[in-house]
Design brief:
There is one protein chain. With about 270 residues, the protein is α+β, with helices and mostly antiparallel strands. The protein contains 10 helices and 6 strands. The chain has a 6-stranded mixed β-sheet with strand order 3-4-5-2-1-6. Helix 4 runs antiparallel to helix 9, helix 4 (about 135-150) runs parallel beside helix 10 (about 245-260) and helix 6 packs parallel to helix 9. The radius of gyration is 23 Å and the shape is elongated.
Length: about 270
Amino acid sequence: MDQHELIAAVKEAMTGKEAIRGLFLAGSYGRGTADAWSDVDLVALVEPEHHATVAADWRQTLDAITPIVFWQELPRGGLLLNAVSEEWLRCDMSIVAPDNFGRRAKNTVKPLVDRDGRYDGLPDALPLRQPDKGTVNYLIHEFIRMLGLMPVGAGRGEYVTMVLGVSMMRDHLTTLLMQDVTNPDPGGILHQSTLLSAEDMALLKSLPYPRPERDAVIAANYAIAREFMPRARAMAKRLDIAWPEAFEAATRKRLAATLGDEAGRAW
């Protein structure tokens, strides 16, 4: 069974279930951007008093279509049901109240069941996404704070932990770059290479993945800082975010005092 066969089987099995007021393909299949590696994302519109019953029925229904080897239920503004079949088909269903259909548009979902005509009321497309000022402000302050923690890790010889810190710094840079992605429904992290520019991807690939050794992890932090800080400053100016000059200056001073004068001039 492949994803298309799964979708067809799900549509047939769920059409007669009255508690489900709507069932929509979302994610890459909803957007029409799916590839051979895509999972199947579904949104089910169900009145809250029927959520638990529909979730239990969905597990039985899906298991009858293709045997399930992994199942997880998470409360996410309703219920999020994650499933993996023995063929490693991934299928996620979000069960939400009909009035909480969320930020959707006709080009982000495809109806499988639509008893109440919800699809017709959706806009054709969502507005382009803009950078989130709160997220950018957090990234700037957290990045500087993590730079300032380098002397602690180095002083204690916690180089394995510092490697994890480098990964977090890289994630902050990636998140900053993603702020300029205007696609309002970009999908998950495994779509990153299709969202960021070739230049941005080349930058991320060029950054070091250090061994847990003092000089290597410190150098990796500085390499990421040299890319993050000018981009963050430019975005802060664009979004009218006050730059934390005193915090950055104190961090430079701390690094120079503990890791050497060149550390304070590393970016």
